[in-house]
């Protein structure tokens, strides 16, 4: 099998399927990335992925796009896992997927023999209906190359892995979803995923599910919608708890207690109920925006999704308001951002709340200093507004306020007394993740503001 695209999704897919026994060819158009991967280096921070790569090395090979035709002669299934960069309205852009689809068509039409038919599987998160578009583009490519007899089938196999736990999520998924109207495609993917679905591969990783992983088969549009609906639901769940958190601040309730109390109901579930600065990343913002854009395209309103996005935006503003309440003017105030990546265990800054907050703070005249155990270098290049330092206490030195933006262990474990000794009045901590021990922070002489943690949050 082959994979086009070696980002989080493509690489985790290729490496995990190689790990469970398949021979995998991975393609990327970035030659530097390909060269690094051949030496076992991954171009982003993802715990365990390098190890998985090393363990699968004999079965996993990397090449540039120029080898597409050669790879197509070898593989029966080709996954497309290229990026879908955000367009002006925040929704997913299809240009990379379209380019790859045309190139597959041209290669299929232009040289022989190929395994017949080729199964083209889309893993990139593309707007619902894109599978048909991909199919048209592959056909056009085949026609352009004059190879009308070349056959292919299309399937959608959305990816649900989370950054930071991509290895675990690929080997032990909650479900595998395949959408297609082709029996050949379904059979090929069933065989490919069998070791993961049956959990029959040998592994050092524990715990693994005791039962088989559900293999969900459906039509193309439903598979594509499952991905969007899953992410939009989770984003809405977080916005819901953030709305509750904001009400908690007015009535003196503690949102952590409330989340615990409602999460014990199986119908609600305890996960994704952490209130704070709101969701970010490369998926939730784009997927919610894409689903809203889909509604607009059909002249259909999506008030719940609109509200989920609006609540999320407001959480960022609440950080600024909490700072203003105790600092008053932010002009010339030094504000430390603790954690810059959009969540812990990744160096990804896409959709990171830190960048949004930093840009507002800078516009209000504050001096912003940022610390992140992993994403610091990337932030220094991307956000010249932020003075990046590589030690959390260095960030706190002389700061009037600090914002916990990302709940890295290094941030959770900060010594409040040491922080208090380094900070300048009013020594405010805005805990955007409710990650710190509020009592210990206050005891150390710092001013503490969380999110939804009773009257004192506000
Ligand atoms: C998400 C989906 O979880 C994954 O299934 C999909 O394939 C890709 O998108 P990811 O973007 O890696 O994964 O991050 P995730 O762990 O889901 O967190 C998303 C955002 O929500 C982060 O900004 C995180 O900080 C925030 N979040 C999460 C909260 O604010 N509160 C929570 O309770 C949980």
Relevant terms:
6-PGluconate_DH-like_C_sf; oxidoreductase; 458 residues; binds uridine-5'-diphosphate-xylopyranose; 2 domains; 18 helices; eight-stranded mixed beta sheet; alpha/beta; Rossmann fold; elongated; six-stranded parallel beta sheet
CATH level-3 fold name of the largest domain: Rossmann fold
Radius of gyration: 24 Å
- Dominant shape: elongated
Helix and strand content put the structural class at alpha/beta
CATH homologous superfamily label of the largest domain: NAD(P)-binding Rossmann-like Domain
The first-level CATH class of the largest domain is given as: Alpha Beta
Indicate the proportion of strand residues: 5-15%
Distance between the termini: 54 Å
How does the major sheet shape up?
8 strands, mixed
**Total number of distinct structural domains:** 2
The CATH architecture of the largest domain = 3-Layer(aba) Sandwich
Please give a structural write-up.
The strands form two sheets. Strands 3-2-1-4-5-6-7-8 form an eight-stranded mixed β-sheet, with helices on both faces. Strands 11-10-9-12-13-14 form a six-stranded parallel β-sheet. It has 18 helices and 14 strands. Helix 5 runs parallel beside helix 6 (130-144). The protein has two domains: 2-218, Rossmann fold; 284-457, 3-Layer(aba) Sandwich (Rossmann fold), CATH 3.40.50. The protein is α/β, with parallel strands linked by helices and 458 residues long. The protein has helices at 8-19, 31-38, 49-55, 68-74, 95-110, 130-144, 166-171, 183-197, 220-251, 255-263, 284-297, 303-327, 353-363, 376-382, 392-396, 409-412, 416-422, 438-443, and strands spanning 2-4, 24-28, 60-64, 77-80, 118-122, 152-156, 176-180, 215-218, 334-338, 367-371, 386-389, 401-404, 428-431, 447-449. The structure holds uridine-5'-diphosphate-xylopyranose (UDX). Uridine-5'-diphosphate-xylopyranose binds at residues 159-163, 231, 234, 238, 272-274, 276, 278-281, 283-284, 342-343. Pfam families: UDPG_MGDP_dh, UDPG_MGDP_dh_C, UDPG_MGDP_dh_N. Its EC number is 1.1.1.22.
